Amino acid sequence: MLTNFREAAVPPGAAAADVVSRTEIPLVSGGSRSGHHDELARDPLGLLQRAAAEAVGGLAQLSIGNRPFLVVSTHTAAADVLEDTSRAFAKPKMGSWRRLLGGSLLCTNGADWARARRRVRLVAGPATAEIARSAARVAVRCSNAWPVDGEVALLPEMRAIALGSAFELLTGSAPDLDVPAFTAALDTVLRHIQEVESTPDRKRCGGQEAFEESVRNLRRQVDPMALRWSTEVGGSRLLRPAGPEAYRGYPERAVDDLLGYLVAGYESTATTLTWSILLLAEHPDEQAAVRGGHRDAERSVVAEALRLYPPAWALLRAAVRPTAVGGVPVPPGALVLCSPYLIHRDPVVFPRPTNFAPSRWDKPHPDLPRHAYVPFGSGQRACPGRTMAATGTAAVLSTLAGRFEFRPSTAHPSPEVRVTLQPPLDTTVAVRRLPGSGRPSPAVPDPHADDRTVKENGNAI
Ligand code: HEM
């Protein structure tokens, strides 16, 4: 989910600039005097699509800085990078992320990453019914404020649902924070990180002070909850510290870990929900199928939204020792960008790849190559929250489709490349409250939160 084009971990002394001359990997056409850097910042998806079209064996090179920069656009080449059986890749150093998340799993490598994995565990797998109920409950609570007949700005609404539900599930208690202030601060931080990552100029980007202030604000808000969460014994939280000693002497690590899981889960879930609803609004038949409870329809819709608009559109790695991708040697210091966005649009694997066709996922696909569909990554760094995300998003979608009819209120938006692949912030959808959906009080269980709407044996994700 997190990318950083600027700060590759180049081992001292690594001579990495000569991959162009030593390999058959084609250099992508275009590029200015500064190579492809400006275009990568301005129109990354356009550049990546050109890289896929010109690739040989799923590999193409960009001219970015003085080290090799490879783009991986097929599942066969992606397998080498994501599975990384010889431990030749690391996540590039992520300085800005570390300012926010310290030693969290999300932005560490090697021994620090292994320590973060040992400190805390997400036990979402056995808790699917609980995840679906919580997500549906939060969806009802948030959508109670929607108009009977009007428009809603989707992304902010889905952020509120994603954050509320993630907090509830991870910590086992309702978020004790100012949700608008929290999401605003997180927005400032994510925007700044995106700007820093994609700006060629290494000088400080503007907004550093606002970034630092927002980081302090977020950590301050999470601090009391992290203390409660990390010292509680038992409870229903899905994110569980390894034991009572896990944070002794290092209370700030509890903030790192809780905030890391929240940040990882929040924006990616919110954008997935936003795309899913936009696509449902444009496809009334699919919407009716979800509303009618047909064949895990909501899971198929989420799977297809994740195929077309994977929030983690680029998975970036830096080679830390000599290795090979698709049989081609890759020197230490090379950056390798695996793009789920490109991999998911391979017409050999997904016929008519740009069509929204949830029926692709109606039945299991034993023949689907393992790395052809990687919205949650793969290998050691794969997403630990995938069960929570898949179950929660399906439950929210089914709950909202049971309460509202959705219609498009604008033309289909092009994705914006931020930390995730998202529709513009002001994208709206027309909603009409369905007869009988009422406004249940938060204390009363919502009819759509029962097991009728909770499909636990989905096939796709
Ligand atoms: C639709 C929602 C989600 C999507 C598309 C998604 C996608 C991903 C992807 C692709 C990665 C791997 C990144 C890489 O290889 O560089 C990842 C990592 C991660 N995800 Fe998710 N994720 C989602 C939801 C969640 C949720 C709900 C949580 C937890 C509450 C979560 C926690 C994490 C963490 C902690 C990592 C880092 C794992 C590591 O580096 O070892 N994610 N996610």
Estimated share of beta-strand residues:
5-15%
Secondary structure: number of strands: 14
- Domain module tally: 1
Shape: globular
Number of helices: 15
Level-1 CATH class name: Mainly Alpha
Rg result? 22 Å
* Small molecules bound: protoporphyrin IX containing FE
Mean pLDDT: 87
Largest sheet: 5 strands, mixed
Question: The CATH topology, please?
Answer: Cytochrome p450
Low-confidence stretches: 1-22, 439-461
Helix content: 40-55%
Helix and strand content put the structural class at alpha+beta
Kindly, what is the distance between the CA atoms of the first and last residues, rounded to a whole number of angstroms? 17 Å
- The CATH superfamily title: Cytochrome P450
Q: What is the succession of H and E elements? A: HHHEEHEHHEHEHHHEHHHEEEEHHEEEE
CATH architecture: Orthogonal Bundle
Strand order of the largest sheet: 1-2-10-7-3
Give a verbal description of the structure:
This protein has a single domain (37-453), classed as Cytochrome P450 (Cytochrome p450), CATH 1.10.630.10. The chain has a five-stranded mixed beta sheet with strand order 1-2-10-7-3, sandwiched between helices. A three-stranded antiparallel beta sheet has the order 5-14-11. It has a two-stranded antiparallel sheet with strand order 4-6. Helix content is 43%, strand content 11%. The longest helix is centred in the middle third of the chain and has 32 residues, at 251-282. The two termini are 17 Å apart. The chain is of the alpha+beta class and 461 residues long. It is globular and about 65 Å long. The protein binds protoporphyrin IX containing FE (HEM). Protoporphyrin IX containing FE binds at residues 1, 105-106, 166, 260-261, 264-265, 268-269, 272, 311-312, 315, 375-377, 381-385, 388-389.
